[in-house]
Amino acid sequence: MLRTRPELDPIQETLLLTLQARALDATMATPILGDARQAELAERLDYDFTKLKLKPSLICGTALRAKKLDDAVRRFTTAHPTAVVLDLGCGLDTRMLRCEPPAGVDWYDVDYPEVIDLRSRLLPQDSYLLGTDLTKPGWTSALPPDRPTMIIAEGLLPFLPGDSFQTMIREATTHFPTGELALNGYTRFAAWAMKYHPSIKALGIRAAQGFDDPHGPETWNAHLTLIDEQLLTRAPEITLFPQPLRALTRATSRSAALSRQANRILRYAFQHHPAL
Fold first, then answer.
1. What is the pLDDT of residue 209?
2. Among 10, 85, 130, 261, which has the highest number of CB atoms less than 10 A from its own CB?
3. Which residue intervals of 123-233 are DSSP H helices?
4. Does a structural domain hold residue 5?
5. In-domain check, residue 9
6. What is the distance between the alpha carbons of residues 20 and 25, in angstroms, rounded to a whole number?
7. Crossing angle, helix 245-252 and helix 56-79, to 10 degrees?
8. CA atoms within a 13 Å half-sphere pointing along the CA-CB vector of 83
9. CA pair distance 211, 217, nearest whole angstrom
10. What is the Cα–Cα distance from 187 to 208, expressed in whole angstroms?
11. Residue 1, domain member (yes or no)
12. E strands in the chain
């Protein structure tokens, strides 16, 4: 099999970390996400995944957060069968194929142009592809402005510089009239601690951003209202974690403060009324 060598910068290369985590989950006896397409994609890349040193905690945590974000998308598109779905920083994820949205949904996979080019060579074109720099203004100009929208931002928060994550979300939630935002919310400590994680160190980058209070994004002037905080240490899928990770996660689940440092999914509603 002829493999494709990904030509990515270190930040873009983080997509390979999450791809491999989902791929390894798919090969487990009791997978959490169970997306075999991710394992197939990883096999098609000419890349040394062993350097990432993925541990069970990262594999299981990545699979679990993807599953919960998929659930959020399915709920939204069931309620809004003509919605727009915006998967920001999509990488090589096959979320649309997992979620199987209604035919009236327009799905946009958004990432850096280099990533979208790689994606277009490896994946079927079932979604609209938008190659753009999400830290630059104006990236929403090509998107429909008049339909309910589900925005997914998985794994982006700690890697965007300065306040660019907030600016990116603000641009999205002021472009669309109403919808939801779902993300995995890193605390400040969790984002800081990532720079010591072997997988992140292997890529030579340093994570930076996070926020502690789940109501924090309500202050971003992005029309956000918190509707749900899921502490994933308390998710029923923890029974699928291997030991001793399962026991450690269950112990962590007894404390909300510790659970927030581990893995959480935050959902926000937004409604934008343009000035007349």
1. 76
2. 85
3. 164-175, 188-193, 198-203
4. no
5. no
6. 8
7. 60
8. 22
9. 8
10. 10
11. no
12. 84-88, 106-111, 128-131, 149-153, 178-184, 224-231, 264-271
| Residue for token pair 């996979």 | 109
Distance CA 59, CA 1 (A): 26
Query: Angle at CA 30, nearest 5°, toward 27 and 35?
Result: 50
**CATH code (residue 57):** 3.40.50.150
The strand pair at 84-88 and 106-111 is best described as parallel
Pairing mode, if any, of strands 264-271 and 178-184? antiparallel
For residue range 232-259, list pLDDT tens digits in order: 999 999 999 999 999 999 999 999 999 8
**Amino acid, single-letter form, for residue 54:** L
Determine contact, residues 139/132, Cβ cutoff 8 Å: yes
Query: 151 forms bridges with which residues in the sheet?
Result: 86, 181
In total, how many domains does the chain have?
1
The residue written with tokens 């899921």 in the block is 230
- pTM (predicted TM-score): 0.93
Residue recorded with tokens 């994606």: 119
Sheet harboring 264-271: ordered strands across?
128-131, 106-111, 84-88, 149-153, 178-184, 264-271, 224-231
The answer for residues whose C-beta is within 8 angstroms of residue 148's C-beta and 6 or more apart is 76, 80, 82, 83, 84, 176, 177, 178, 179
Residue 228 domain flag = yes
User: Containing domain of residue 119, as a range?
Assistant: 14-271
- In DSSP terms, 29 is beta-bridged to none
User: From CA 110, how far away is CA 139, in angstroms rounded?
Assistant: 10
**154-175 tens-digit pLDDT:** 988 877 777 889 999 999 999 9
